[in-house]
Amino acid sequence: MMRGMGNMQGMMKQVQKMQKDMEKAQAELNEREFVGAATNQLVTATFTGDRKMKDIAIKEEVVDPEDVEMLQDLVIMAVNDALTKVEKETEATMGKYAKGMPGF
């Protein structure tokens, strides 16, 4: 009977360590910056790992009052590119913790 309790305690320690490792990895990921860009770097968007926009840069030559829709499209492209990069890195960083866990 005691043998099973020892295994349970060991398993709980492993789970606690994994939780701390996950929290540290998530915190480090949140501090990283990801830059997405539209065509020819005309618009760039910078996000943190927790998907907060920090900056958006628009090159002057793309600003055309006659064609606002093109600028809007470039902004959307840059934002989506940055968010895709955040998502891929999040999956690569945090996905290793979910492997082998039931329900993930």
UniProtKB/TrEMBL annotation:
Specify whether Translocase is a keyword of the entry. no
Q: Which SUPFAM superfamilies match?
A: YbaB-like
**UniProt keywords, alphabetically:** Cytoplasm, DNA-binding
Subcellular locations according to the entry? Cytoplasm, Nucleoid
Q: Which InterPro entries match?
A: YbaB-like_sf, YbaB/EbfC
Q: Residue ranges of region Disordered?
A: 1-24
Q: Name one GO cellular component term.
A: bacterial nucleoid
A GO molecular-function descriptor: DNA binding
What's the main place this protein lives? cytoplasm
An example of a Pfam family matching this protein is: YbaB_DNA_bd
UniProt lists compositionally biased (Low complexity) regions at 1-17
Q: Does the keyword Cytoplasm apply?
A: yes
Family recorded in the similarity comment? Belongs to the YbaB/EbfC family.
Role according to the record: Binds to DNA and alters its conformation. May be involved in regulation of gene expression, nucleoid organization and DNA protection.
HAMAP family this protein is in?
DNA_YbaB_EbfC
- SUBUNIT field: Homodimer.
Question: What is the name attached to this protein's record?
Answer: Nucleoid-associated protein ATZ33_09205
**What species does this protein belong to?**
Enterococcus silesiacus
